[in-house]
Specification:
Blueprint (H helix, E strand, L loop, with lengths): L7 E2 L14 E9 L5 E9 L6 E8 L8 E2 L3 E3 L2 E4 L2 E8 H4 L8 E9 L26 E4 L4 E6 L4 E6 L12 E4 L6 H12 L22 H14 L111 H9 L20 H5 L33 E9 L12 E7 L18 E2 L11 E5 L7 E2 L3 E2 L2
Helix pairs in contact: 2-3
Length: 491
């Protein structure tokens, strides 16, 4: 499994006042030891003569906006009885923030006279520090461990069950996520939208009825803006931003965004023959600096053409009709945020399985037509291969093994997987923005359903026997009565 590391920048912090002159922390520096999850920290501590201090360290994954993570596994000048002078410490980030990656990290050092911590309890709502925000209590917990999916194995040239856990590229592996048990209702939409309108958000139309039916006929842009509003309403860090992170992926696994000239394309058979999505020593690459030797990758896309890497993710999406993005919208989604997000394809597959791995359908081998709960679970008469009008989410249809309803059935659902297909030869001379849509009442089961979007809707190739491939694509700026959504959060 690919190791995910973190990159840290620096921040200096004044400590809390106590005696005649408060402790003062300056010259804070943090650097990650290459190839490890160990972070070396240096700082200068000024104290009253003859005094010692209690020193604590906190980590921010969002460029100092919040410091939710207490650095507990630290050796060196930390905790009680720290004297004045230039100090060093080493943080084992694997203990406190494992399987994560950020290019916006900062360390905060707090010093307090005496032998007790300052009382700072962390800000924000992620990591091991809590915070003022709290996700909706109705959410269901799902552990994001192994992901089995039906796919093409290049080594055998066959379709087979594969462990595709590495596809969790935008989620936290081996940790809990928390998921809406049903699709978002009109009532829930209006509750958040009314708050948003009063708090500097725009372009979130209210549903005409505040009932328990799924909220449909909304666009992708309206949905992700609503997710941000829901996050801020609940005191969580919003996940979607107008300024994207220009990082394209840590292809060499060293935990930093490299800005060299060489390029390498994951999952391209010519450069990634074992199709593992990670650069391995000896694999071919495009040596842009004319055979200078070691692979020196360029792991960012200069979207604003300023000649440097920009981490972005500083301006939450609250207003405007859309967000300008290049190729993939994921660059504008903060996987470390505590707020609400739309599922990616991998998350949808995990949720739809209900915990049942290596089966054609979540319930087993039976096709939907032969499944005993067909009519009630799919909310449609047996044999009807077109989507019905969306039904109430709190109907008597059964939940799956994760206690989630309607992952397959009722309306289909927006995902976070938006992209510009023109980058891959699609479209006709201009942007071809599409978003993947999963599940639904026969939306994707058979290619005989009515066109839910009208002009511009596309069918992708599907396999009827495998629920993970029940997907279609739709435009980002159009809604459909057949498409709603649900959220998940890391908080």
């Amino acid at each position: 499994m690919k190791t995910r590391l973190l990159l840290l920048s620096i921040v200096s912090t004044l400590a809390l006042p106590a005696y005649a002159a408060p402790p003062v922390v300056t010259a804070v520096n943090a650097s990650q030891q290459s190839g490890t999850k160990l972070v070396d920290i240096t700082y200068n501590l000024a104290l009253d003569a003859g005094q010692s201090a209690f020193v604590e360290m906190w980590f921010s994954p969002d460029n100092g906006l919040n410091f939710p993570i207490r650095c507990t596994d630290v050796n060196g000048s930390v905790d009680s009885n720290v004297t004045a002078g230039n100090k060093t410490a080493t943080w084992n980030a694997e203990s406190d923030w494992n399987q994560q990656f950020t290019s916006n990290g900062k360390i905060r050092v707090i010093a307090t006279y005496g032998d007790q911590p300052s009382g700072f309890t962390g800000s924000g709502g992620s990591g091991n520090a809590g915070g003022s925000g709290q996700a909706d209590a109705s959410l269901k917990s799902v552990f994001m461990d192994v992901l089995w999916d039906w796919g093409h194995n290049p080594s055998t040239a066959t379709q087979e069950w594969m462990d595709l856990t590495s596809n969790f590229q935008h989620e936290k592996i081996n940790s809990q996520i928390h998921v809406d048990p049903t699709e978002i209702t009109n009532a829930k939409w209006n509750e958040v939208a009314e708050w948003a309108i009063a708090n500097n958000y725009s372009g979130l139309p209210l549903a005409s009825d505040s009932n328990a039916s799924p909220r449909t006929n909304v666009t992708f842009w309206e949905v992700i803006k609503w997710c941000n509003a829901r996050s801020e309403k609940d005191g969580l860090i919003p996940a979607y931003y107008t300024d994207g992170n220009e990082a394209t992926g840590d292809v060499n696994g060293n935990g930093v965004v490299d800005t060299g000239p060489d390029t390498w394309t994951p999952y391209d058979f010519a450069q990634d023959p074992n199709q593992n999505g990670v650069y391995d020593n000896g694999e071919p690459y495009t040596d842009s600096d004319v055979n200078d030797g070691p692979f020196n990758p360029k792991e960012y896309y200069d979207a604003n053409n300023n000649g440097q890497y920009d981490p972005g993710l500083t301006n939450p999406y609250r207003q405007g009709s859309s967000v300008s993005f290049d190729t993939y919208f994921h660059a504008h989604a903060d996987a470390n945020a505590t707020g609400y997000r739309l599922p990616t394809h991998s998350v949808f597959v995990k949720l739809a399985s209900g915990g049942s791995n290596k089966t054609n359908w979540p319930w087993g081998a039976d096709t939907p037509e032969n499944y005993v709960s067909f009519a009630s679970e799919f909310h449609a008469p047996a044999g009807q291969f077109s989507y019905p009008l969306s039904g109430p989410t709190e109907a008597t249809r059964p939940a799956n093994g994760y206690d989630l309803k309607d992952l397959i059935g009722n309306v289909a659902e927006f995902s976070e997987d938006a992209m510009d297909n023109s980058s891959f030869g699609g479209g006709a001379g201009g942007p071809d923005l599409k978003v993947s849509i999963f599940g639904g009442s026969y939306l994707g089961l058979k290619k005989v359903h009515p066109d839910p979007f009208g002009s511009g809707f596309e069918d992708n190739q599907m396999q009827v026997e495998r629920y993970s491939n029940l997907f279609t694509q739709g435009p980002l700026d159009a809604g459909s009565p057949a498409v709603g959504f649900r959220c998940f959060t890391n908080n």
